[in-house]
Amino acid sequence: MEAGTKSTALAFAKLPAFTCKTAIILGMKECDIYLPVESIKELLNRLLRIEGQVKGLQRMLKERKSCDDILIQISAVKSALNSVAIKLLKDHAEYCVKPGIEYGDIRAFEDFMGALEKLIKGGC
């Protein structure tokens, strides 16, 4: 793990969970919410593992490992990224979209659907 990545993970670990109720109590005009710290930590850890897998792929190519083995590892990376996307979608729906809608922000649902469409289509 690189030093910058580790410090980023530690910085996120200190963030409090933020909800619409907190926004209302603080008198905010918009419901600025985000994922709970536990979700952020888990997503960062998964991405760090994927980063290691990608570095392993680079190493395999440099060492002229079997193309079949490299392709299998590429498949594993794609699967791991899909798992991150699924986790993020679930948590985003639960902790960001749902409270946003409850707060009266219909745009939260529209934005979610737009992001989901881009994820499925595979492009921005």
- What is the CA–CA distance across the termini? 29 Å
How many E strands?
0
In N-to-C order, the SSE pattern is: HHHHH
What is the count of helical runs?
5
What fraction of the residues are assigned to beta strands by DSSP? under 5%
Mean pLDDT: 80
How does the major sheet shape up? none
Shape: elongated
From the helix content, strand content and strand pairing, which structural class follows? mainly alpha
The gyration radius over C-alpha positions equals: 18 Å
Catalogue the unreliable spans. 5-19
Report on this structure:
The chain is mainly α. Residues 5-19 have low confidence and may be disordered. It is built from five helices and no strands. The relative contact order is 0.12. It is elongated.
What is this structure's SSE topology?
Layout: H1 3-13, H2 20-25, H3 37-62, H4 67-102, H5 107-121
